[in-house]
Structure formats: C-alpha cells, structure tokens
C-alpha cells in the first residue's frame, strides 16, 4: 500500500507537483509552509502548519515531497531535504505521465521529472534533482543531486553536471561538457566550455 504524502512548501512549484500527485492517485496529508496560514489551500490541498508538523508522523508512515522552487545559488531546498533525511524520512520520486524517461535511465529518490521533459538512454538524474517542464536530458548525461534543469533547457549528449548545478530556462549545454558543483547557467544562453565549481555563466 502506498504511503500518504506530506508536501514541504506551498508556492507555485507545489501546485505543479500536486497535479502530478493527482495523476498518481496519491493520498496527500497536506502542505507544510511557515509562510502560509494554516488551513489555507494550495491547488486544493490544505496547509497543515510549519515544517515540523512532519515530526507528528513516524518516518515509516509517510513520504515527503520537497516543493520548494529551485533557485540559483540557494541551498535552502537542500538544507530542508537533508534535515528530514537525517531523521530517517524518505522523499518520493515524481515523474509526470507525459514525461519520457528511457528504461535505461536511472532516476534517484526524490527526483522530479515534469511534464514534457525527456530523459534519454543511459542518463542519470541525482537525488532530489528537478528536470523541469519541457527540459531535455540527452543520452549519457548525469545530473548530480539537488540539480535543477529549468523549463526548456537542453543538455546535449554526455554532459556531466555536478551536485547543485542550476541550468536556466532555455539554456543549451553542448555535448560532453562538465559543469562542476553549484555552477549556474543563465537563461537562454549556449554553453560551449566547461564550468568551474560555483562559476556563473551569463554568455555569450
């Protein structure tokens, strides 16, 4: 039997994830968000309080979904996830039914693959990473944990992206490049070289 879900965060990203959960016929207990009024609704799901409400449930009883929207140069999402991982909670992997994921791709726990996204053969999507709406991960790519490939972005074949990498909307990363941990690519640019750790690329 599937475990009920608690969603962490009640912003716009949460609304999209709630849609995926509805396709999966998942039972959602509610949303935790310290900035929202208890009892308010986000896409039809009730806010049940702050994040520590999770602790009212044993780690064996529920699964979590991190719905904080990924942001460049921000570790808030990762810190929240790690807090509950350290307490033994697990995060649900979400794959929209209209995404394409190759049978040879590996998707780690807590990753989120959104509508229209494509993850091709032999690719690897790390724990708690987001492949957002319409993004393309070509063959033999790797996205490290807590990465974000924004809507419409493209990783061409063989790209290796480290943990915490942020690829902006509509950006293109050419084949076989290496993006070191916590590097950032601005929206709409084409990357033709490797990026160093924490480097920010604005183009051209």
How would you describe this structure to a colleague?
- It contains two helices and 23 strands.
- Helices cover 11% and strands 27% of the residues.
- Strand 3 (41-42) and strand 4 (45-49) form a beta hairpin.
- It has two domains: 5-86, Rossmann fold; 93-204, Hexapeptide repeat proteins (UDP N-Acetylglucosamine Acyltransferase, domain 1, 3 Solenoid).
- The radius of gyration is 17 Å and the shape is globular.
- It has 204 residues and is of the alpha/beta class.
- The termini are far apart.
- The strands form four sheets. Strands 6-9-12-15-18-21-23 form a seven-stranded parallel β-sheet, covered by helices on one side.
Q: What share of the residues lie within helices?
A: 10-25%
CATH architecture term of the largest domain: 3 Solenoid
The CATH homology group name of the largest domain = Hexapeptide repeat proteins
**Rg for CA atoms:** 17 Å
Binned strand content:
25-35%
Specify the number of helices. Answer: 2
What would the CATH topology of the largest domain be? UDP N-Acetylglucosamine Acyltransferase, domain 1
As residue ranges, the low-confidence spans are: none
The figure for the number of domains is 2
CATH class of the largest domain: Mainly Beta
Mean pLDDT: 97
Secondary-structure element order, as H and E? EHEEEEHEEEEEEEEEEEEEEEEEE
Supply the helix-strand structural class: alpha/beta
Main sheet makeup = 7 strands, parallel
Gross morphology: globular
Q: For the terminal residues, how far apart are their CA atoms?
A: 51 Å
Number of strands: 23
């Amino acid at each position: 039997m599937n475990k009920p879900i608690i969603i962490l965060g009640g912003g716009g990203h949460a609304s999209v994830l709630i849609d995926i959960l509805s396709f999966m016929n998942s039972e959602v207990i509610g949303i935790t968000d310290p900035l929202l009024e208890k009892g308010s609704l986000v896409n039809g799901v009730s806010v049940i309080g702050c994040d520590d409400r999770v602790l009212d449930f044993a780690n064996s009883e529920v699964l979590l979904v991190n719905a904080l929207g990924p942001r460049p140069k921000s570790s808030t999402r990762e810190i929240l996830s790690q807090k509950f991982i350290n307490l033994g909670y697990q995060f649900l992997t979400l794959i929209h039914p209209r995404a394409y994921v190759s049978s040879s791709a590996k998707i780690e726990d807590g990753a989120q693959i959104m509508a229209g996204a494509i993850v091709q053969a032999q690719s690897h999507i790390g724990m708690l990473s987001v492949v957002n709406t319409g993004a393309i991960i070509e063959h033999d790519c790797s996205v490290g944990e807590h990465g974000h490939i924004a809507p419409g972005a493209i990783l061409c074949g063989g790209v290796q992206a480290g943990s915490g990498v942020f690829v902006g909307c509509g950006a293109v990363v050419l084949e076989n490049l290496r993006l070191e941990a916590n590097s950032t690519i601005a929206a709409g640019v084409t990357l033709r070289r490797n990026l160093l750790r924490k480097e920010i690329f604005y183009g051209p």
